Amino acid sequence: xxxxxxxxxxxxxxxxxxxxxxxxxxxxxxxxxxxxxxxxxxxxxxxxxxxxxxxxxxxxxxxxxxxxxxxxxxxxxxxxxxxxxxxxxxxxxxxxxxxxxxxxxxxxxxxxxxxxxxxxxxxxxxxxxxxxxxxxxxxxxxxxxxxxxxxxxxxxxxxxxxxxxxxxxxxxxxxxxxxxxxxxxxxxxxxxxxxxxxxxxxxxxxxxxxxxxxxxxxxxxxxxxxxxxxxxxxxxxxxxxxxxxxxxxxxxxxxxxxxxxxxxxxxxxxxxxxxxxxxxxxxxxxxxxxxxxxxxxxxxxxxxxxxxxxxxxxxxxxxxxxxxxxxxxxxxxxxxxxxxxxxxxxxxxxxxxxxxxxxxxxxxxxxxxxxxxxxxxxxxxxxxxxxxxxxxxxxxxxxxxxxxxxxxxxxxxxxxxxxxxxxxxxxxxxxxxxxxxxxxxxxxxxxxxxxxxxxxxxxxxxxxxxxxxxxxxxx
Length: 475
Hints:
The protein is an all-beta fold. The protein has three helices and 30 strands. The protein has helices spanning 10-15, 367-370, 433-436, and strands spanning 7-8, 18-19, 45-49, 62-69, 72-81, 101-105, 114-119, 132-136, 146-148, 157-167, 176-183, 187-190, 203-206, 223-227, 236-242, 249-254, 261-265, 270-274, 283-288, 303-307, 323-326, 346-350, 359-364, 373-378, 385-392, 409-416, 425-430, 439-443, 452-454, 472-474. The chain starts with 6 loop residues before the first strand and ends with a strand. Residues 1-28 form the signal peptide.
């Protein structure tokens, strides 16, 4: 299925886009890579546990950050963050779900990446589940100090912070923050630059219920990713929700001034961006883990779709034509497509072998009675290929642990360079491990070399209740 032609959304102007305060003068985006919180050139691993009990409050939520080292995440130097942490705004309350969504960028351009944490269950004033987002600042010693990200339009939206991403969405050189929620104003943009104190700059809110293919406001914007899809210096938003009046996945790409026009790609629940074929254009991978009986855009056992980018006006290169779908029934993809595998529940792009092409990790947490699996497909000059494709489970030699029903290994996956060797490493979450405690696996360059795993207690998260460590994962 090709992308639909971009459509001007006149109705959004009447009923959805709300300009706010004036923007501040532009300045250059800082050099720190996302998730490099201490500026050492290694990506750090941020792990959300929104089901964590904090101070006796069930599902208050927590985030543990494990700093990168030459041998991968070093659990001896983790930073635990909750709303009871000194300097973090608010207080831990039952159901806040702090850590439901994560994002990172060098927001204040000081050379250290900062962390954004969503707590969509936070009650704001008299607004139940109004939601909030916290910025935690990076520095030479790692993360410390925080402030609440402004919500410019809280009155007709809830669960602010259930989805997060960052990018330069207005092309002014500053990093901006995009926030998903529910209700009428389900997508918000907070414009940079950012500072540790003082007023925030401008922003806008959008009602995607008025888009050409309307989003259902009850579910809202459930997931966001971003990248320079048009290769024009401005980042596009990849927006995930559900079609109005149905349970069907709906995914749109907002280019430039996202509130005014959208393009639609195959529907899915998650996405990742990167250059799979090395042509200099950012590609989008959309994961849809559902069966066709539940979602027409799904497939038996789930699927992923690569939408190849181009430089000018469309988010797909029509000359090389490309939306290519992969399932476990695709020749060369390990495994067999079976109902409930949830192939595509987690997706992440990164260059695991240093050849200049983005490779793809795909989580299948429903595989083998929900024991779970991760599939690695490699990028090439001809795009994503199944040559040398690999499957990793807890039954794979060298992977710690053992595959057990309900572990849900691969529910979330991240490819990022935590060792500073120029190759992306695989972090995978098994959110059902140990009856819902959750656990994280790290595999250098997506191989079993030096593999390690750890659970909540190792990184300071309480095992009371079901913390589901790794329900959100960033690196």
